Structure to design on (490 residues):
């Protein structure tokens, strides 16, 4: 029994060790920021880096004789373990650097950043130490493409294959497709695109009027489709159409699969975007949702000028359906149809392989095609009607996987909504809190609306939301498979 547990756990801890050691050095970045601004929060980062480094070294020596090639099930355990460990150590500087914050708040904030949910429990962001705001947004940036995808690029140098990790962490229903023969090259290519977009976004924000520091922080949160800001008013702090247009542009393109960005860059052609049914569906959803919300706001007299209605509808709609979570208006006060449509679209709109959350557009497309296919088979039972996405035939295993995921997603959402209501939330707040966390969206409606935050929730409710953010980021099955007897069978 103990030997079997060691065989499963210790190789995972062995791979976790260099990740934690690397993360300890990453913590020195906000420490440098703290020293530069003299904000008084530097000791928290030094303490967190020291604890993280010592833990990584301890794991490394403890498991030095247990290194082996990863099996497929190891990827699931490793993904879950690291996505728990990184927020745990990332919460230490928050706990030590923010007066009056408890561990629940610190861990929630760190998990929220790492999973790019960016649901916050903090207030008076403008008065926080600069290094704390940097750390929050930088965590969102790291989580955007996935800490594990970055680790996949360096693990081969340590003598460990990474394809199982990549498959467990990378989002979307069709994870088997590779962009390059070697999985490490794929990870490096994706990160190259991600870094280039981040630099371009920061440069554009700087030209539009942001300070260098704010442009960097908001590039982190925008490209990652996170939502953290260094200001309570978020993008509304500047009240600038130019800055909002830049934000909308990058939120839209980062809602597209980074695989497409990679292929477009390698082929030096934009044709791949137009050939992708998922990309076309995402862009069409953006256009339709912006048009519908604009019509609702103008028709109901929320804004007298149609261009003003378009401005606020476009930014907030794109922000929500891309699961970014930024806001320039309190959309919870808009006619109920508008935010409800936005939240429904957020559940599925972004592409698999993007930095967005939710169930992903490809799953919605697969299930829609399967539904229409079933109508045909009902009328003509002997017909041969394969399910096609573009030029590819989708196997039944992928269809069943998408269906199982949707059922699990809906089941968990309903269950957690009921639990939140039992613990005291009203129906609207409970539903929107669940959707906001499991889709990694951030703000909800009701008491957790865009001009409020999650500090109104109890510690019990916050821990439940933290779990939702974790399983939402790792697409549920990665986590829930660990609770099956089959997984632990030796």
């Amino acid at each position: 029994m103990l030997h079997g547990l060691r065989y499963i756990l210790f190789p995972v801890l062995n791979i976790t060790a260099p990740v934690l050691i690397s993360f300890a050095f990453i913590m020195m970045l906000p420490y440098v920021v703290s020293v530069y601004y003299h904000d008084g929060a530097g000791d928290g980062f030094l303490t967190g880096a020291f604890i993280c480094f010592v833990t990584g070294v301890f794991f490394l020596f403890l498991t030095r004789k247990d290194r082996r090639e990863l099996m497929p099930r190891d990827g699931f355990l490793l993904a879950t373990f690291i996505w728990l460990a990184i927020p745990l150590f990332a919460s230490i500087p928050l706990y030590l650097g923010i007066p009056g914050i408890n561990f629940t708040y610190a861990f929630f904030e760190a998990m929220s950043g790492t999973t790019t949910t960016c649901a916050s429990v903090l207030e008076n962001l403008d008065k926080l130490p600069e290094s704390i705001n940097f750390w929050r947004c930088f965590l969102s940036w790291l989580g955007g493409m996935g800490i594990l995808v970055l680790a996949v690029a360096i693990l081969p140098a340590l003598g460990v294959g990474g394809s199982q990790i990549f498959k467990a962490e990378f989002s979307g229903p069709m994870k088997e497709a590779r962009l390059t023969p070697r999985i490490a090259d794929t990870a490096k290519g994706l990160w190259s695109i991600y870094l280039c977009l981040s630099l371009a976004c920061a440069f554009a924000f700087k030209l539009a009027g942001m300070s260098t520091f704010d442009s960097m922080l908001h590039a982190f949160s925008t490209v990652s489709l996170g939502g953290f800001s260094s200001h309570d008013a978020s993008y509304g702090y500047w009240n600038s159409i130019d800055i909002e247009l830049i934000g909308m542009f990058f939120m839209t393109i980062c809602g597209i699969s980074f695989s497409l960005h990679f292929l477009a860059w390698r082929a030096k052609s934009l044709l791949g975007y137009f050939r992708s049914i998922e990309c076309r569906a995402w862009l069409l959803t953006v256009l339709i949702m912006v048009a519908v919300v604009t019509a609702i706001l103008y028709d109901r007299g929320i804004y007298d000028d149609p261009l003003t209605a378009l401005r606020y509808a476009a930014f907030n709609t794109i922000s929500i359906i891309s699961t970014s979570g930024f806001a320039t208006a309190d959309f919870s006060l808009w006619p109920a149809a508008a935010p409800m449509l936005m939240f429904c679209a957020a559940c599925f709109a972004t592409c698999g392989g993007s930095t967005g959350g939710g169930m992903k557009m490809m799953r919605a497309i697969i299930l829609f095609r399967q539904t229409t296919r079933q109508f045909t088979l009902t009328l003509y039972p002997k017909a041969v009607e394969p399910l096609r996405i573009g030029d590819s035939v989708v196997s039944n295993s992928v269809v069943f996987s998408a269906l199982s995921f949707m059922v699990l997603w809906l089941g968990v959402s309903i269950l957690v909504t009921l639990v939140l209501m039992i613990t005291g939330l009203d129906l609207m707040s409970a539903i929107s809190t669940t959707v906001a966390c499991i889709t990694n969206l951030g703000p909800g409606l009701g008491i957790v609306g865009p001009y409020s935050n999650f500090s109104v929730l109890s510690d019990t409710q916050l821990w439940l939301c933290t779990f939702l953010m974790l399983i939402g980021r790792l697409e549920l099955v990665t986590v829930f498979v660990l609770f099956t007897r089959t997984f632990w069978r030796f």
The longest helix spans residues 396-422. Confidence is low (pLDDT under 50) at residues 151-161.
